[in-house]
Design goal:
Blueprint: H1 6-13, H2 24-30, H3 44-53, H4 61-76, E1 82-84, E2 87-89, E3 94-99, H5 106-120, H6 122-127, E4 129-130, H7 136-141, E5 158-163, H8 166-173, H9 180-189, E6 208-216, H10 217-223, H11 226-230, E7 237-242, H12 256-272, H13 283-297, H14 302-307, H15 311-325, H16 333-354, H17 361-373, E8 378-379, H18 380-386, H19 393-405, E9 409-414, E10 421-426
Parallel strand pairs: 3-6, 3-7, 4-5, 5-6
Antiparallel strand pairs: 1-2, 8-10, 9-10
Length: 429
């Protein structure tokens, strides 16, 4: 085989490492590490909650922590904020717990959090924790402004949406003319929600929407579409990998008096969160933010880069929550370190969950086929056959161009009768 240019020649030299899935180079590329939650994340009330609950549950500590932060962010409401230029960030988070299977104990991690939320603010627990995301209009209805004289709307603009089957929400969000994705993006960005589908449809102002979802990794990779990654829906979520932490055949034995004492500690914190309207960083927190800002704002490629591209904003919200939970009136160094540690876990979770996926369905499919083909590679004809000869040639060419540009694959021209054949190979990273 003779390459068609110098660049292809250099790439072809790399084919010596393309043996099979057991090749050290390929194995190294495919090996993934479970994310590790740093101790800096377990500070203040959030850390105490995790340490209180963890011995009595099989749930992952990261899942407990992130759902507690999201739940308390919902309870705090739309009072305290951190301004960034013309935008204001509040404590509402969108969190999805991702397990390898139903055995990841995602549900039990939420049960402990919900128990505390219902005790801290019974009115919130009774009416403001809902489920069943099906449309943008339905979400708006739960936080709507008054409509005419007979509908007084919702006085409490806080809402925590919990979806233990988040795959279902992803499915409905992709339906034609469904407004769920657009309204959720509005809800993360600001408190003004409305749709343009009907002239007299409900609208909401000062809405404070938080989301907690549960999904398996396989479901997520199947359901998260190119559209969801491209339009910014996915990067508003914190993706949290969770696994079973331990085996407790007889369950846990968390003392209710310990929970009640923790709840009494949180109640004045919730009231205090209504007093400080605008947060700033102290000098130490500001220095830490400056030192980490370049890395947070650095763009990444592929699907991983798409779902983690709001790193700076997520860290701002997380640091605000840690400050609120501490009853502080500014964001301190400890709060910033905790927020960055949580973000590191979510970033590493996204890398673990999505791996080297490009977020381009055709390119990802071809890349996986090239990996499976090993040192033999695939011709254009093979690739067309892989798609059952139903994928347009222009789409295959576009996807191969993406892979070639990223250095994920290379082509070698094989001489033959008439036109030369084009054979493609996976390049191990």
């Amino acid at each position: 085989m003779r390459p068609n240019n110098t660049e292809a020649l250099e790439k072809a030299a790399m084919l010596t490492i393309l043996q099979d899935a057991s090749s050290p180079a390929v194995a190294k590329s495919d090996r993934r590490k479970h994310p590790v939650l740093k101790s800096e994340a377990l500070v203040g009330a959030a850390g105490d909650f995790v340490r209180m609950v963890s011995p009595h549950t099989e749930a992952d500590e990261a899942a407990i922590l992130l759902q507690f932060l999201a739940g308390m962010g919902a309870v705090f409401g739309r009072f305290a904020c951190f301004p960034v230029e013309a935008d204001r960030h509040f404590g509402n988070l969108f969190v999805v717990i991702v397990g390898e299977s139903s055995k990841a104990r995602k549900g039990t991690s939420w049960g402990h959090v919900r128990n505390v939320l219902e005790k801290v603010d019974p009115a919130f627990g009774e009416t403001r924790i809902v489920s069943g995301l099906s449309s943008g209009e339905g979400l708006i209805w739960n936080v709507r402004d008054p409509i005419g004289e007979n509908d007084h709307g919702e006085a409490d603009k806080r809402i925590l949406v919990t979806e233990t089957e988040f795959a279902r929400a992803l499915t409905v969000a992709e339906r034609e003319n469904n407004t769920l994705s657009a309204v959720l993006r509005q809800a993360w960005d600001e408190g003004k929600l409305q749709t343009l589908t009907r002239k007299e449809s409900a609208r909401a102002t000062n809405a404070h929407v938080s989301v907690i979802g549960h999904i398996t990794a396989d479901e997520l990779k199947r359901k998260l579409s190119d559209t969801a990654t491209a339009n910014g829906f996915a990067n508003r979520f914190l993706w949290v990998y969770a696994k079973r932490s331990k085996l407790l055949p007889d369950g846990g034995n968390l003392d209710s008096t310990e929970i009640d004492a923790f709840v009494r500690r949180l109640r004045p914190v919730v009231e205090g969160a209504k007093l400080v309207k605008r947060f700033e960083r102290d000098d130490e927190a500001r220095r830490l933010w400056h030192s980490g800002y370049e890395e947070l704002s650095e763009g990444q490629s592929g699907l991983f880069g798409s779902v983690t591209s709001r790193a700076e904003a997520q860290v701002v919200r997380l640091s605000l929550l840690y400050a609120l939970l501490a009853g502080a009136d500014e964001i301190e160094e400890e709060h910033m370190r905790a927020a960055m540690a949580v973000w590191d876990y979510c970033r590493d979770s996204a890398r673990f969950i999505f791996g080297d996926a490009l977020g381009d369905a055709t390119a990802d499919d071809i890349l996986n086929a090239l990996k499976a083909a090993g040192e033999g590679g695939l011709t254009r004809s093979d690739i067309r056959s892989h798609f059952g000869n139903h994928k347009p040639s222009v789409e295959i060419s576009r996807a191969l161009g993406v892979l070639e540009q990223r250095g994920e694959a290379c082509r070698v021209m094989e001489p033959g009768e008439g036109r030369s054949a084009e054979r493609w190979f996976y390049i191990a990273q």
